[in-house]
UniProtKB/TrEMBL annotation:
Residue intervals of the HIG1 domain: 1-96
Keywords in alphabetical order: Membrane, Mitochondrion, Transmembrane, Transmembrane helix
Organism from which the protein derives: Hanseniaspora guilliermondii
Cross-referenced Gene3D superfamilies: 6.10.140.1320
Signal peptide: none
Descriptive protein name: Respiratory supercomplex factor 1, mitochondrial
GO biological process, one term: mitochondrial respiratory chain complex IV assembly
Length: 167
């Protein structure tokens, strides 16, 4: 079961038109406990740091403990909010539940497709390398033929020169 998107109720074309601030505001409206938890965490850390700088270590320690509690509450809000949205999407019929076996089979099929695509890419790379090697070999063969022709011409010229020098 995938996590529901906060854009499920929007047209896909409208998603890209939302500004960042609008997206943040929408998320805050959907689950207001998360921003409250974040602000609480920031406040407790700030107070703890101020108390520590002033030398009141016992109070600072209590505020750091409060920070841990507020972080835990924020995390709990994230988890509960996500499961609530998922449950809501399921009840509205937007999302189907799948068994663990179905999910595992989908993952296996996805991995098999990935392997197949990788193998096809590898075969295409090998084919391209073979083509390049054949082209290179053909080029070298033509160069060798030209060199042989030049060598033959030079041998003929040498024979002619030898004949002229003997006469």
């Amino acid at each position: 079961m995938s996590m529901p998107s906060s854009y499920d109720h929007l047209d896909p074309n409208d998603k890209s038109k939302l500004k960042y601030t609008e997206q943040v505001a929408q998320k805050c409206r959907e689950n207001p406990f998360i921003p409250i938890g974040i602000l609480t965490t920031i406040t407790t850390v700030t107070i703890a740091v101020l108390k520590m700088k002033s030398g009141n270590k016992a109070t600072a320690n209590k505020w750091f403990t409060a920070r841990v509690v507020s972080q835990g509450a924020t995390l709990l809000a994230v988890v509960l909010g996500g499961s609530y949205e998922g449950r809501k999407a399921y009840l509205e019929g937007k999302e189907e539940t799948k068994s663990i076996i179905e999910i595992q089979q989908e993952k296996i099929q996805q991995k098999a497709k990935e392997r197949q695509n990788l193998w096809i890419e590898e075969l295409e790379r090998r084919d391209e390398n073979i083509k390049k090697r054949k082209q290179f070999a053909e080029l070298k063969k033509r160069e060798m033929e030209k060199m042989k022709e030049q060598s033959d011409k030079l041998e003929e010229e040498l024979k002619e020169l030898e004949k002229k020098t003997k006469h």
